């Protein structure tokens, strides 16, 4: 079944989650993602699923932990300040190897900041965020359709690798309305078995879900298991979209909403005969380092990267690591209310 | 010959790490006896605390889940809401339930989650070495109240049963004490009611168990049991609150 509907990014994520088989949602109100929570409140019970308005984000993520430990598809959503509170639970989920989906519709920070769109939580999302050596899979949609689609992928990857996954959007994407094509149940939910889930020990040995390893050597052993998993994810799950990458001399690197602005900048440059391209990371962790490697290997003479973000320079650090001194990298970013405009980008190129 | 006393199937045959005279081991056993007697071991999911009972899952022979410090009732909410036909209980100390997890406690109770709670009030933080708990008695000396708990600075012992009693969604609340053999028997009876309430879908039930921590109280096991009966019960009156 395929149908076309006009919907906001926040609601598209919610609709995608329900269709991907999300069994449990817990959330706490925060702008600019409130439409997502409201959509879940209305539609989860209709689909015979569980919706809980939690007393805080600390509680919401722990409720998600309980539902995930039960072997269910579980999800929460929030923005900046709320995501900071969820870091406790996210670290426990990673440590207990529990799959779940966390949505961050980013707003301005630090502190209470404001409710304007921003991309300032990139470090928090991609570098761990909470305590301990862990990563979450991070997916960054740049259109409402893609936000909808990545929910399915997020749940599937979380289940496959037994890890929390994050959809990292921003206030612009969350609020914006676009027509999308709804596809029914393309999700891999049915394929995953969860023999570790807590469902009662009838006919089997009891299961324990925990992240605590006090015996000497045990935690190190466990951390190595995690690291092996992360190496596998890094190898297999890099995702990006490229535009005119083959012949480009200047490549704009941007993700999410900012990539839409960068795309228009590339189109303008092309019209003027400039060899410009766009590299849009879709997976922020793992960062798509492979494509940088390919481009740098193939490069003939000049190759320059221009990174633009709604932050004062976070993803650019991963670009620098990927390029490792082999090409020039420029950066332009704004955050706190301002959005990099096409004109500002073109001026700086 | 008929065997009339044995280890419950729900209790693993391993040594625990609890100090001599500690209340935790006794409550573990009572819970396991009840789970066996009610025949619910295979549908039980426990949520363990962060506190001295953090590795209760090593002693219990049924499914168990960890929770971050204070978040047991939020984790239990996620489990019970997705598996309403399983038996889900939390086991929490006073730091866990009444300090860092106060919000989770009040709101799970206020939502009337169909859960059972074993709340171990030992008036101190055992695991971290004897700091003041929200339930520490006035004048009680701890590592963080070396001169004794002073209400002008540290407030008064927090009475969880009394606080929760005003919430309409709470089904049952009882305070018992591990101060004697009779107290142990009453504790089992109170836990049984809390468990059966859940099995009969009656909603949130909590049993507050005044429990000895001889090591952090710097008392002998016997002295600690006496102190529960003679001192703790003055601040925390026993009985059924709801
Ligand atoms: C977020 C966080 N803060 C602090 C701690 C350290 N900590 C571990 S147990 C505990 C208190 C335990 O006291 P209680 O809940 O009364 O249980 P008891 O050990 O007395 O049984 C603390 C503060 C922690 N593990 N996590
Ligand atoms: S420190 Fe206290 S609560 Fe902890 S095991 Fe020892 S006696 Fe029990």
Characterize this entry briefly.
Chain A is an alpha/beta fold and 349 residues long. Chain A has helices at residues 9-19, 34-46, 57-69, 80-95, 122-126, 144-161, 171-175, 218-236, 256-271, 289-298, 315-323, 342-348; strands at 2-8, 24-27, 50-53, 74-78, 100-108, 114-117, 137-139, 164-170, 177-183, 208-209, 240-243, 250-253, 276-281, 283-285, 304-309, 328-333.
Structural summary, described in words:
The complex is a heterodimer of chains A (349) and B (242). Chain A has twelve helices and 16 strands. By secondary structure, chain A is α/β, with parallel strands linked by helices. Chain A folds into two domains: 235 residues, Thiamin diphosphate (ThDP)-binding fold, Pyr/PP domains (Rossmann fold), CATH 3.40.50.970; 107 residues, Rossmann fold (3-Layer(aba) Sandwich), CATH 3.40.50. In chain A, strands 2, 3, 4, 5, 6, 7, 8 and 14 form an eight-stranded mixed beta sheet that branches. In chain A, strands 11-13-12-15-16 form a five-stranded mixed beta sheet, sandwiched between helices. In chain A, helix 11 links the parallel strand 15 and strand 16. In chain A, helix 1 crosses helix 6. The radius of gyration of chain A is 20 Å and the shape is globular. Chain B has 242 residues and is of the alpha/beta class. Chain B has a single domain, classed as Rossmann fold, CATH 3.40.50.970. The N and C termini of chain B lie far apart (43 Å). Chain B has a seven-stranded mixed beta sheet, sandwiched between helices. A two-stranded antiparallel ribbon of chain B has the order 5-6. Chains A and B meet through helix 3, helix 4 and strand 10 of A and strand 1, strand 2, helix 3 and helix 5 of B. Strand 10 of chain A pairs parallel with strand 2 of chain B.
């Amino acid at each position: 079944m395929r149908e076309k509907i006009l919907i906001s990014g926040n609601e598209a994520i919610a609709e995608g989650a329900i269709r991907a088989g999300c069994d449990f949602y817990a959330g706490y109100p925060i702008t600019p993602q409130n439409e997502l929570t409201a959509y879940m409140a209305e539609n989860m019970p209709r689909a015979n699923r569980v919706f809980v308005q939690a007393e805080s984000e600390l509680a919401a993520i722990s409720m998600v932990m309980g539902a995930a430990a039960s072997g269910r598809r579980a999800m929460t959503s929030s923005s900046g300040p709320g995501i900071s509170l969820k870091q406790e639970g996210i670290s426990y989920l990673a440590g207990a190897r529990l799959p779940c989906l966390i949505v961050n519709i980013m707003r301005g920070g630090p502190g209470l900041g404001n409710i304007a769109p921003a991309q300032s939580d990139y470090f928090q999302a991609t570098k761990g965020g909470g305590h301990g050596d862990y990563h979450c899979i991070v997916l960054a949609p740049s259109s409402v359709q893609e936000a909808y689609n990545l929910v399915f992928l997020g749940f599937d990857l979380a289940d496959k690798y037994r890890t929390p996954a994050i959809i990292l959007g921003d206030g612009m994407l969350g609020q914006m309305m676009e027509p999308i094509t709804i596809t029914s149940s393309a999700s891999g939910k049915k394929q995953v078995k969860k023999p570790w889930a807590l469902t009662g020990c009838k006919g089997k040995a009891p299961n324990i879900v925990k992240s605590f390893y006090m015996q000497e050597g045990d935690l190190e052993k466990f951390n190595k298991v995690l690291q092996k998993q992360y190496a596998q994810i890094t190898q297999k799950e890099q995702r990006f979209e490229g535009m005119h990458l083959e012949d480009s001399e200047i490549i704009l690197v941007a993700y999410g909403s900012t990539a839409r602005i960068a795309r228009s900048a590339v189109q303008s440059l092309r019209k003027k005969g400039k060899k410009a391209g766009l590299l849009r990371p879709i997976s922020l962790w793992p960062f798509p380092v492979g494509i940088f490697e390919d481009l740098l290997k193939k490069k003939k003479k000049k190759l320059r990267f221009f990174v633009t973000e709604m932050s004062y320079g976070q993803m650019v650090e991963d670009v620098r690591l990927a390029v490792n001194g082999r090409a020039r990298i420029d950066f332009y970013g704004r955050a706190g209310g301002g959005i990099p405009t096409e004109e500002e980008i073109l001026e700086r190129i | 010959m008929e065997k009339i006393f044995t280890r419950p199937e729900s209790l693993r045959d391993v040594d625990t790490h609890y100090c001599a005279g500690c209340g935790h081991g006794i409550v573990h056993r009572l819970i396991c006896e009840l789970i066996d007697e009610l025949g619910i071991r295979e549908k039980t999911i426990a949520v363990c605390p962060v506190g001295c009972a953090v590795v209760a899952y090593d002693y219990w022979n049924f499914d168990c889940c960890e929770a971050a410090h204070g978040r047991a009732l939020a984790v239990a909410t996620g489990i019970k809401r997705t598996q309403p036909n399983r038996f889900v209980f939390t086991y929490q100390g006073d730091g866990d339930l009444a300090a860092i997890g106060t919000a989770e406690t009040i709101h799970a109770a206020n939502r009337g989650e169909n859960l059972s709670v074993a709340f171990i009030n030992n008036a101190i933080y055992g695991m971290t070495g004897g700091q003041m708990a929200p339930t520490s008695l006035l004048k009680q000396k701890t590592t963080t109240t070396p001169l004794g708990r002073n209400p002008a600075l540290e407030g008064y012992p927090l009475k969880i049963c009394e606080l929760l009693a005003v919430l309409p969604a709470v089904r049952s609340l009882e305070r018992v004490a591990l101060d004697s053999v009779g107290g142990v028997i009453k504790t089992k009876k109170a836990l049984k009611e809390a468990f059966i309430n859940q099995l009969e879908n009656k909603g949130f039930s909590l049993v507050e168990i005044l429990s000895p921590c001889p090591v952090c109280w710097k008392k002998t096991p016997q002295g600690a049991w006496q102190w529960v009966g003679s001192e703790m019960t003055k601040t925390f009156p026993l009985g059924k609150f709801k």
